Amino acid sequence: MKERISLGVIIGNRDFFPDRLVADARIEILEVLEKLNIKPILLEDWETKLGGVETFNDARKCADLFKKHKEEIMGVLVVLPNFGDERGVAETLKLSGLNVPVLIQAYPDDLDKLDLARRRDSWCGKISVCNNLYQFGIKYTLTAKHVVSPSDPSFTQDLSDFLGVCRVVKGLRNARIGAVGARPGGFNTVRYSEKILQRQGISVVTVDLSEILGDANKLTKDDQIVKDHLERIASYTPTGSAPSEALIQIAKLDVVLNRFMNDNALDASAIQCWTSLQKNYGCNVCTSMSMMSENMLPSACEVDVTGTLTMYAMQLASGSPSALVDWNNNYASDEDKCVLFHCGNWAKSFLPDIEISTAPILGTTVGVENTYGALSGRTPAMPLTFGRISTDDTRGVIKAYFGEGRLTDDALNTFGNRAVAQIDNMQGLMQYVCRNGFEHHVVMNASKTAGILKEAFGNYLGWEIYEH
For the chain, percent helix, then strand, then coil, each to nearest 5? Predict the structure, then answer.
């Protein structure tokens, strides 16, 4: 999932500081980037003085280099081994035309090396660089420590988080989501604005559910591609008591959904599943949704487009699958715990005891025999990042909330996909969700990535955010 990312690198310099600091920094930062499998794009040490950026001519050379790799560069790292030239950094970014996240790193001074031959003054220079970027209207990210050596574990974490920010920003600015079918009539909660999403670069590709079901019904159990998908399903999850007829229906639907995803180059999907699919086709689509989510093509039920967009964002931040869940039940009298639930479409990563089953609640109205394909499984203790993206249509904005907690092994005797979440000040969170008109769906990810989402959503995408 975590493909090799290319970062543009700007090494700042100022002529009255020792040149050796720039040469040493170049060697050190390249070693750090290599260890993290990051491809650096920077000036050669012969193209400017030691490959640093100081003058306007230096900035033009660096900007031209970045332009050549514009499609490749996902972010820019600014390295300040000394005070640096704030104009050189700002002009490089302006001239390059890049609109990507920027991380500012500055070296610390040593107390015994504050003489003219060895002092850096990067503490001060970083403030000047940030001031100029602010004036230029260029967004940037700061390290946890104001000054930090590239060899410091703190910087490794800064860089890792920054890569997550780069993935989220690039991914969401070009996301393509498939909406399969109409929103179920009883789910006003998942309404959203395609136009607001499109303004952010997020495209929604729609298809009528009848087209998907019609194509599925044209397939037969004897078609090789159906047999292939049956094998995939059997290798993905135990099939439990599901009859062969139901498994064939699930496999045929899986074939058509995968074609739709591939033909339209989609990153995620949201599918109508309540209740037309069961009434008109005779199975649940949960197994296919789980398989797609596990394979990094997140899929949400009830045509929850902004729900699956949240799944995709959290996947980009963490590099691991996400799951759409209901804020569903209180957990006894514990005010900081609740039950997370869905009929059964969570990625396999959340379900070590996964098995194809039925959806009993849905079955009360459509017949349990028409709900095979729902998955059963209990999520064990693991880290938790939760959150939700939503379009506030009357105000014309995208808003989001997110936070961190943990999933627990507390006893839970029920069916479907289920988990127990523990979140500090759960009652305050529910107050916020209800007062601000958020959906009953939330997304969970087994990570600690709230800081990445805050930086990506709030700083670079300009969305309204609440971090719990």
Answer: 40, 25, 35
Contact 444, 320 (CB under 8 A): no
Query: Beta strands 299-301 and 417-422: pairing type?
Result: unpaired
Tell me the domains of the chain and their CATH numbers.
Answer: 5-173 (3.40.50.10940), 176-467 (3.40.275.10)
SS (H, E, C) 68-131: HCCCCEEEEEEEECCCCCHHHHHHHHHHHCCCCCEEEEECCCCCCCCCCCCCCCHHHHHHHHHH
Place of tokens 């109409």: 182
Q: How many CA atoms lie within 13 A of 129 on its CB side?
A: 36
Task: For residue range 386-410, list pLDDT tens digits in order.
Answer: 999 999 999 999 999 999 999 999 9
CA-nearest of 403, 391, 404 to 436 is 391
Q: Which helix (H) or strand (E) holds 207?
A: strand 203-207
How far apart CA 52 and CA 45 sit, in angstroms, is 7
Q: Which two tokens stand for residue 210?
A: 């009848």
Can you tell me the distance from the alpha carbon of 281 to that of 304, in angstroms, rounded to the nearest whole number? 21
Return the ∠ at Cα 52 (arms to 47 and 58), rounded to 5°. 60
Phi, psi of 407, deg, nearest 5: -95, 140
DSSP strand pairing (464-467 vs 397-408): parallel
Which tens digit of pLDDT belongs to each residue from 189-238? 999 999 999 999 999 999 999 999 999 999 999 999 999 999 999 999 99
Question: Which helix (H) or strand (E) segment is 406 a member of?
Answer: strand 397-408
Q: Which two tokens stand for residue 438?
A: 């958020």
Q: What size, in residues, is the chain? A: 468
- Pair 341, 420: CB distance under 8 Å: no
Angle CA(236)–CA(347)–CA(343) in degrees, nearest 5?
A: 100
- Residue 282's Cβ-side half-sphere holds a number of Cα atoms within 13 Å equal to 13
> Which of 28, 116, 44, 117 minimizes the C-alpha distance to 79?
28
1-34, pLDDT tens digit by residue?
Answer: 457 999 999 999 988 788 889 999 999 999 999 9
> Is residue 359 a contact partner of residue 374, using CB atoms and an 8 Å limit?
yes
- Strands of 38-41's sheet, edge to edge? 38-41, 5-11, 73-80, 102-106, 141-142
Write the CB contacts of 5 (distance below 8 Å, at least 6 apart in sequence): 38, 39, 74, 75, 163, 166, 167
**Which pTM value belongs to this model?**
0.97
Q: What is the three-class DSSP state of 65?
A: helix
Q: Copy the structure tokens of residue 121.
A: 């003054």
* Element spanning 262, H or E: helix 244-263
